């Protein structure tokens, strides 16, 4: 591994136990029965541990949405053509996509990154051009990328989130765009969880039964051709991954190294988390899984990682839409801890012994 990747992993430390204990103690004195706000209470304590503050603060919010194309689309695994990837990136930049609407409501900035769109994107002040290559190669006939490209993708994610931290980032969400990325994510999920391809593969953009069977066959072919090993996460990313998946893994690692909570979106972000958490097991405590996707593999990978999603809304759009909702809940949890009165402050009698 490179110096940047190694040093980033080394900076990921256990959560601050003192801050968590203080947050837990305050939760137990707020004007409510102990535990009555359920997951919001646990989330506030986790946020305290991540930020190292007894009362965590969530004000500066951002969602990093990364785009990349996949060579395996040549095998006919998607219901949509590859041209949709750049078209949707322009939609993000124009403010008209699902993620734009939800992020505006949540008050989060969107950072759109070209990690490997197959076509040349027009320059735009809100587009970060970090193209590793114009799309991955076809994983059904060989590795999707070189290991050097896999590392470059991860490092790019680290660099982008670190630059945002310097601006005062309190929380980050992950999002994705890329025709063919559920195929790559299913391959990663099958390798890393040990589940069969059929178990972890969904319909992605909405393929019919015939295309779905073909998609499963192509993923099985890719695994047979490349022989990825779950104990070698960088090689798994290189053999069957995507540039945006690698970039999101880097965002997760970089956020945790800087004590910033990372709210992950759906299946593609989950695949990135499988790579990132295998590289740095301590990262798991910094990850907040926003929701469980309709994509079949997402539930399996969350179970494998031991992560419990905040929401189950039958979503499968990606882009960071679920992550935005998770950021809203995280901010809510932090504000309840900070702003709710204690029994003593409110003059309310506590529970009788």
Describe this structure as you would to a colleague.
The model has no long low-confidence stretch (mean pLDDT 97). The chain has a 6-stranded parallel sheet, sandwiched between helices. Strand 5 (262-264), helix 12 and strand 6 (287-289) form a beta-alpha-beta unit. It has 2 domains: 3-55 and 338-346, Orthogonal Bundle (5,6-Dimethylbenzimidazole Phosphoribosyltransferase, Chain: A, domain 1), CATH 1.10.1610; 61-332, Rossmann fold (3-Layer(aba) Sandwich). It starts with a helix and ends in a 7-residue tail after the last helix. The protein contains 15 helices and 6 strands. It has 353 residues and is α/β, with parallel strands linked by helices.
CATH architecture identity of the largest domain: 3-Layer(aba) Sandwich
Q: What gyration radius follows from the Cα positions, in whole Å?
A: 20 Å
Profile the largest sheet: 6 strands, parallel
* Number of spatially distinct domains: 2
CATH topology annotation of the largest domain: Rossmann fold
Outline:
The protein is an alpha/beta fold and 353 residues long. The chain has helices at 3-10, 17-27, 39-51, 84-94, 98-106, 147-166, 181-193, 197-200, 209-226, 233-240, 243-257, 267-279, 296-305, 321-339, 343-346, and strands spanning 61-68, 109-116, 127-129, 171-177, 262-264, 287-289. Helix 2 (17-27) runs antiparallel to helix 3, helix 5 runs parallel beside helix 14 and helix 11 (243-257) crosses helix 12.
Task: Throw out a few tags for this protein.
353 residues; alpha/beta; Rossmann fold; 2 domains; 15 helices; globular
